């Protein structure tokens, strides 16, 4: 399914943004999908109407996409939780532009703006900043 262009029925996305994008949360929402479906119905060519099975197919694809997003979030949560108690090495750039690398045991997690942070001591690092993981000694 091409979510950026729904054919020649007067409804298409501009500047490569997905119609399913919820600008407030940057995630797929059922409201966005329903708005798209309503726009398709309003703007369809009545001499060449869209087949109903296309809507059912799009809804099934939307449901699959949403389930995959939820599964990804659950996997990320499980991964982050598995780091507690393990020794990790993490690096991040300091304000002066120097690379700061720290090794230590992950003591806690935080969830801020839907992103996990791991704490090594009192310093927080993102999952992307972790460079090495090994069992705690």
Return the average pLDDT rounded to an integer: 77
Helix content: 25-40%
Q: State the end-to-end CA separation.
A: 49 Å
The coarse silhouette is elongated
What does it look like?
This protein folds into 2 domains: 21-79; 83-134, SH3 type barrels (Roll), CATH 2.30.30. 33% of the residues lie in helices and 29% in strands. It contains 2 helices and 7 strands, in the order ββααβββββ. It has helices spanning 30-43, 52-82, and strands at residues 21-22, 27-28, 87-93, 99-112, 115-120, 123-126, 130-134. The protein is elongated and about 70 Å long. Residues 1-23 have low confidence and may be disordered.
Q: How are the elements arranged and paired?
A:
Elements: E1 21-22, E2 27-28, H1 30-43, H2 52-82, E3 87-93, E4 99-112, E5 115-120, E6 123-126, E7 130-134
Antiparallel strand pairs: 1-2, 3-4, 3-7, 4-5, 5-6
Please provide a brief summary of the model.
The chain is α+β, with helices and mostly antiparallel strands and 137 residues long.
